[in-house]
Design goal:
single chain; alpha+beta; D-amino Acid Aminotransferase, Chain A, domain 1; eight-stranded antiparallel beta sheet; 7 helices; globular
């Protein structure tokens, strides 16, 4: 099994640790490092997934470049040799899985775009006929395509908690009307271009979430973008409304945990080798299908 990095360790530096990323504050910039940690049901597992950090980083880089004509983003470089000391001396930990990015004031909402009715949206729709307060047609099937895209913002939760879906009015109350309209419209524009590209590769982009940050020059796209951790990608040739779909993500991990009656209020657990191998292969497959490139370590 490949070398797995659960946490970076750069001497004489300090990092904050999210579910997946280690983040180093460099003053006016940040260094984002995608570890091989994996979370499910908002719990971080004890076992990492080989190559996951590289895959997430390289997929985000691909999308940042493809979408540059739609919106500005925070990427400065992913060339470790151009990082400031001491980070430039730690390619063994950082190569392929890190990005030097602009520091922004992060808007405290996640911008979710839904094209199909699934996940938490499906759960709400079954009860109320709505998603985030948006009324939808009656009798939609699970995973059915919506008549049009919907923007369903969410408030950002602490690690271990669930993000909370909110309506557009609440989003306006949090970040203001001008910013709310801008990130809504740009999120839709980014989704439309990404969805068209994915479709050309035989993949359905069912939904995704974006994060945005404020700089002196305006609002830009930040964080990871259109990865299997932040999006639902389905193989188009296997799609059928009315059931769960096969997906390019951590579904093997979720299914395993469900089968073993994992305590969703407890700690993460060790994962068996076959689940780890299948999940790693699925992440790599997502990269190769979306980008058209062979994944290289």
């Amino acid at each position: 099994m490949a070398n797995v990095i659960l946490q970076t360790n750069i001497p004489d530096t300090n990092a904050t640790h999210g579910k997946v990323r280690d983040i180093y504050d460099l003053g006016d910039k940040l260094l984002f490092v995608a570890s091989d940690r994996i979370s499910a049901f908002d719990r971080i597992m004890k076992t990492g997934i080989p190559y996951k950090g590289q895959v997430l980083t390289q997929i985000s880089k691909f999308w940042f470049e493809l979408l540059a004509d739609v919106v500005d983003n925070h990427l400065i470089t992913d060339d470790v040799s151009k990082y400031p000391a001491p980070f430039c001396d730690h390619a063994d930990q950082l190569a392929g899985r890190s990005m030097l990015v602009k520091k922004t004031k992060v808007l405290p909402v996640e911008c979710v775009i839904r094209c199909y009715i699934t996940g938490s949206g499906w759960a709400e729709y079954k009860n109320d006929g709505t998603v985030c307060g948006i009324e939808l047609p009656a009798d939609l099937k699970q995973c059915e395509k919506l008549p049009e895209l919907i923007f369903t913002p969410a408030t950002k939760a602490e690690i271990g908690d669930h993000d909370e879906n909110v309506d557009f009015k609440t989003c306006v109350d949090i970040i203001g009307i001008e910013a709310a309209e801008y990130v809504r419209d740009k999120s839709v524009a980014v989704f439309n271009k990404a969805s068209a590209h994915a479709e050309s590769k035989g993949i359905i982009l069912a939904d995704t979430k974006f994060e945005w940050g404020v700089t002196d020059d305006g609002i830009i796209l930040i964080d990871e973008v259109l990865t299997p951790d932040s999006s639902r990608f389905w193989p188009a040739d296997k799609y059928e409304a009315g059931r769960d779909q096969e997906s390019y993500d951590k579904q093997f991990v979720r299914n395993y945990l469900e089968e073993t009656e994992f305590d969703k209020s407890g700690d993460g657990v060790d994962l068996p080798d076959d689940i780890v191998a299948k999940t790693s292969a699925k992440y790599i497959e997502a990269y190769e299908v979306l980008t058209g490139k062979k994944f290289e370590v």
